[in-house]
């Protein structure tokens, strides 16, 4: 997960990875840094999980692990068919 540094962030304080991110933003610009680091992709994944949970609920009706696996595979397959229509 990537956290966007503030506009006035310093690269000489905090963790090394944060300093590298600040330096990259200054060199490449925000747009290129966001594309390179994957910043902003998290919302797409959270949207997909939220949609899935709204459609099928948060719980499994099955009790054994084998049946839970089958149930989730069926739900994911159905979800993928609906999304790709």
Structure, explained:
This protein is mainly alpha-helical and 85 residues long. It folds into 2 domains: 1-40, no CATH class; 53-83. Helices cover 65% and strands 0% of the residues. The longest helix has 19 residues, at 65-83. It is elongated.
Please supply descriptive tags for the structure shown above.
85 residues; mainly alpha
Present the secondary structure layout.
Elements: H1 16-28, H2 30-37, H3 42-56, H4 65-83
Number of domains: 2
Structural class: mainly alpha
Treating each run of at least 4 consecutive H or I residues as one helix, how many helices? Answer: 4
Query: How many strand elements?
Result: 0
Helix content percent band: 55-70%
The overall pLDDT average reads 86
pLDDT < 50 stretches: none
What is the alpha-carbon Rg in Å? Answer: 20 Å
Q: What is the terminal-to-terminal distance?
A: 31 Å
Give the biggest beta sheet: none
What does this entry show, briefly?
With about 80 residues, the protein is an all-alpha fold. Helices cover about 65% and strands about 0% of the residues.
């Amino acid at each position: 997960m990537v956290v966007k540094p503030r506009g006035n962030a310093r690269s000489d304080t905090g963790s090394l990875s944060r300093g590298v991110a600040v330096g990259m933003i200054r060199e490449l610009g925000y747009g290129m840094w966001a594309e390179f680091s994957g910043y902003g992709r998290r919302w797409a994944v959270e949207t997909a999980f939220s949609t899935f949970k709204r459609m099928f609920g948060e719980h499994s009706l099955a009790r054994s692990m084998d049946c839970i696996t089958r149930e989730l595979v069926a739900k994911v397959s159905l979800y993928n068919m609906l999304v790709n229509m």
